[in-house]
Amino acid sequence: MNVYYRWVVLALSATLALAFPAQGADISLASKWKAGDETVFSYTSDSTRRDSVPAAQATKEQRTRQEMTIRRKVIETGPAGTTLELAFERIKVVITQGRMFMMFDSAKPPDPDRSNVLEDAIAPMIGTPLRVKLDAEDRVMEITGYPQSRTVDGAVRPLIVDDELVRNSLAGMYGLQKKPSSGKIGDRWTSEEELPGEKGTVLAIRHLRTLESADLEQAVINSKGTAEIRIVTPGTRPQQLMQSFDASTSHHWDHSKGVLKWMVLEQKIAMEGVVKQARSVHLSTVRITLASEGNTPPPAPTAPKDAAPGAGNPPPGSIAAPPR
Prior knowledge:
By secondary structure, the chain is mainly β. Helix content is 9%, strand content 50%. Strands 2, 3, 4, 5, 6, 7, 11, 12, 13, 14, 15 and 16 form a 12-stranded antiparallel beta sheet that branches. A hairpin with a 2-residue loop joins strand 15 (259-275) and strand 16 (278-292).
């Protein structure tokens, strides 16, 4: 081996050693909390719900887009857990259904000459921070500070922000809930969440997560989800049955700073029921992104309209996990 070639090999080996953790090395997936620290996150949700009765050739589709800017501040932290403050600085919602179009953007002044039901759901949240208490393993234990809902014509208007959004959709803000909090490339673990279902039921989702790749700054964690309908009120008989469920998530975690860079979740659920003795089909899809300031999630992959979530190009990784 000549001197020049040996120098190139040594330089390349040194570069790779600096760029990637040692084979088999532990990678921390824990959040790094410090009282007073603030981080701004951007959240988006694009969802579509399509309800149809094939026998009657009737179909109804609603599309909803949500955009939120959220400032997360660490109030206090210690061995027993962490208390966070979430301030919703901007919320924008757009809903379309047939010829109906509704939009409200908290960053713009409302039209005094037009009534907008979205304003009643959004405006109370702006400037009203929530308190989120986490336990020692960064699991949400308590959410407080919701503003009072508005009452219009005797009807209470629900807030756009609720426990399900704070606890589940924004879960990437709090960490990856891995026990132990460090791991090696190829490690797998599970996490669970429950979403509101029909009266007396919840949709229980189980995520199987894999630490796919890592470099000295970033770790990539991908997951696939399975789900079941659980009856929480004895005697409940679900009106709809789940026919299929598919979910995939990708977290890009800055393990050098202990904070989420960005995450993307894509989920698709098909349900069947009965409407006036005719079979009904209900298809819901959603794509959620969450990113800390300075990071941009990838755009939705190019895939057929009815393709399963996760179709298209997978997120890039530095060191691939071994197949299992």
